[in-house]
Amino acid sequence: GALLVSERIDREELCGALSPCSLSFELLLERPLEVYSGAVEVQDINDNDPVFPSSQARLEISESVAAGARFPLESAQDPDVGINSLQTYQLSANPHFVLDVHTRGDGSKYAELVLEKELDREEQRELHLVLTALDGGSPPRSAHVQIHIDVVDSNDNAPVFNQSTYKASVRENTPSGTLVARISAYDLDDGPNGDIVYSFSSHTPAKVRELFALDSATGELRVKGQLDYEETKLYEVYLQAKDKGAVPGVAHCKALVEVMDVNDNAPEVTVTSVYSPVPEDAAPGTVVALLSVTDLDSRDNGLILVRVSDVNDNAPKTSQDSYDVYVLENNVPGIPILNMSATDPDLGRNGHLSFSLLQGDTTVGHLFSINRDSGTLYLLTSLDHEDQVEFSIMVQVQDGGSPPLATNVSVSVFVTDLNDNAPTVLYPLPNSTSPYTDVVAPGTPAGHMVTKVVAVDADVGYNAWISYTLLQATDPTLFSVGLHSGEIFTARQLQEDEAPQHTLVILLKDHGEPVLSASATVFISVTERVKEVLTDLTDVAPAHDPRKHVTFYLILAVILVSAAFFITIVSVGIFKCYKWRQSKELFNSSRSTLYRTPGPFHHVDAVRGGFTPPSFYHQVYLTTDSRQSDLCKKPFTSSPLGSRQNTIRNGEPGLYHQIVGTASRLPTPAE
């Protein structure tokens, strides 16, 4: 398990200026198979000296330059990173210049000469300085460059840039010659002193000069080499403008060029074989190889998109397992009554859903239909609540996979009632050719029920709730009708001089919206004798009506049944009285014979002699300590004395105690 170095490691060769320098690897463990990702960070050592582009540098500075003027110097390069990289610059001692060290955005350092005391050409025509670059190693490494400064006559005006910093962005892999930025400077002098030449400043590294080109006349900065976002994301390009005077004036600016990433790196797949060759009896699920995919691009350009093909492994799912739909009866045919919704997370044909009705009931197909694509359920015909209240439908939702998957959903359609049926009178029969006449005798008190109007309503609920009101009557003060029962009562006592025939018109109304009604006509005869009424009915009824004697036969049947019931009750009563008298006589005779005061012939002797059954002896013996003895509860075996023993239950208390006392004096079995 030791990780060894197989060759000499050079951090600068592996990672360049990138820090930290990390080398990734994967570790494979077998039995059980496990994969771990690891990384080795190569740490930097101070094994490189700073290096200047050249060993000497020459500057021409006018004696008229004011104190505070700055002059950029070429930077040294150190391939080490971190503290081992270039950290500072030092300038040899002199009376005119000091050194100002700056830090770039990437952390690198560069230096500028700052004029601290004005120059005088007559006093000193040239100066010799030494610039030293130091890194942060221990001990530090260094590099030196000789700076030769020529003091020249004054140039009235130096070039001036219209801005000190230019910003631009360019996509990596941009073809050579693409314009990045255009810098511009002006000089107020005329002639050669006012002509400007653009160039890279001494601060610009050699790598940058290989990637970008600067037009010395126009100041156009263009792409020259191959830009790579994965290598460097931002370049700092230092530029200068000089005029063509005998003592040229110089101006400096900086261009920041941002490199934008493009998807120019294909994913790299690394396959690590685990078992090779694979044995033919390898178990399913055995890992054969490991695949590692990397992409050097950044952000979305560096994601790995693995396309997964769809398998029809999801059945359609509806928003509800079942639906309850309520439809008013007498509906318009063809109306939609339900919009079913279903989803399937599968893709393409596997997620395309279709709806259909399962024809469990043949009537469903004639009454309902469903749109195959949208799942809208339609009602094809008008429904009647009185015909059928509920319909059960099974809808199947199926996807387009192979094989297809389906889900069944139950739909219950309830037909709600409308008030479309008026009350129907069952009694008295409407439109009958032989109207029935109810009979009430004179002198009947108030509150007597004479007859009842019977009606039904095919609707339900409030639509079927019938109320009865008296609409017309021969004498409105004589009869009244129950509001909800339809029962007709006498409103007052009937007098002898009442009209013999009365006609009542009853109005029947339901409670629906709108209200529907019907009427019933009731005929009532006030008479003493039923015979007179029957005679009147016979005169009124047609001779060919076979039902004219139905009422008479019904009355006769009731009378006969009542008489038979009365005779049965009387017979049962007579029989019970007879049995009671017989048992009483038997009880009286037993008191005078068997149950007299014991004499020389003791009860135990009767048992020994066989005159009394043993069962009787045992029953008496067990009741000595209880008035609620088994003697009064358990039947005895049949014997000549059985009927007499039964009479003890109804006998006198004194007789019962006498028997118990006799039993308590019985001898023991040993005697």
UniProtKB/TrEMBL annotation:
InterPro entries: Cadherin-like_dom, Cadherin-like_sf, Cadherin_C, Cadherin_CS, Cadherin_N, Protocadherin/Cadherin-CA. It comes from the Eukaryota. One of its GO terms (molecular function) is calcium ion binding. It is a single-pass type I membrane protein. GO terms for biological process: homophilic cell adhesion via plasma membrane adhesion molecules. Keywords: Calcium, Cell adhesion, Cell membrane, Glycoprotein, Membrane, Repeat, Signal, Transmembrane, Transmembrane helix. Residues 53-161, 162-269, 319-425, 432-544 form the Cadherin domain. GO terms for cellular component: plasma membrane. The chain crosses the membrane at residues 552-575. This is PCDGK protein. It comes from Chauna torquata (Southern screamer). The lineage of its organism: Eukaryota, Metazoa, Chordata, Craniata, Vertebrata. The gene is Pcdhgc3.
